[in-house]
Amino acid sequence: MKVLLVDDDYIALEGLSKMLHWDKFEGQIIGCVSDGLEAISVIQQQVPDVVISDIKMPRMDGIELAQYLYTNHRSVRIILLSGHGEFEYAQKALQYRVFSYILKPITRTKVEELEEQLIHINNELKTKNTLRNLSSNDDLQTRIVAILNKGSTKELQDLVYSGEVASALLNDREGTLGITLLNWLFSHQKEIGKNQILLSELKKKCFEDYWTLKTPQERRDFLLSCYLETMSYSESQKSEHIKPIVSRCIQIIHQQFRDPFFNISQLADQMNISPPYLSTIFKKYTGQNISSYLSQQRLTHAQNLLKDVSIPIQDVCVQSGYEDPHYFARVFKNKTGVTPSEYRNLYGLGDFQNNVSENKG
Fold first, then answer.
1. What is this structure's pTM?
2. Among 154, 166, 195, 232, which residue has the fewest nearby CB atoms (within 10 Å)?
């Protein structure tokens, strides 16, 4: 945490910098200056987290400095040091959101009081940093979508009530992480095909309800209820929504498996669905991975072509969706136990059962 000290009394400035236990609040002093103008010069080069400033100073006093920070760097906390006769004067700074006041002279007790305030500010800054990191964490979003796709209420409750996310939500006084989680939730609902008009109205009401809640605990519980409702909706719509998607997926595979460049990404693009979501619902509905199903179609087609001895094996490879004959031979043997040539010979002798073992992993 970066701290700037401002006081026209050099002895007081030096004493304060030495009396503070900087390690307690992970503090780093970025400057000691004698008035507000010098402070602004430092701030323009390096913005501090906290400014500790005397009130009465020449050229620019602590009140004017507080006004400058309020106008230009509102996130910077300012703590004012005031004398006994300056209290009424200090009241003018209330409109500039001064964090606190420390009454001079600065004794050991006052230093300890100041340290407690700096510890509080440091913890607050770390919490904000955690919230900011979580709100832009793609891995967290992926994890949450995976939980929603699985329909795991236990994993969702664990996420919301324990661990880093739970702790961050309880400290999310401005609601920033909560809003991010709601946006992720509605993006997911859009992806799973929820009615767009209904979704728009629901989103508006959800955000309005969220902002009426007063405490982080209430907002956390509200978030959980919204996520659980989405899970419930997904389950109720599963047969109606997923079956047509999977049917269309199978149809496209049957039409395009002969193309060696056809893959899951192309399939998902054609269906306007993300590959992870498509893979999840396909596996959940069929019990088989898309890649396994695609491979199965290619190999079954290859087996049928191999029965016709007039078709060269290299043509069988290409017509079955394989660009590399060596790779085709390896995959074929791995699935059937014999090479394409051996399969053709054995089939001609009538000694081979057309039975490809499916890989469902």
1. 0.53
2. 154
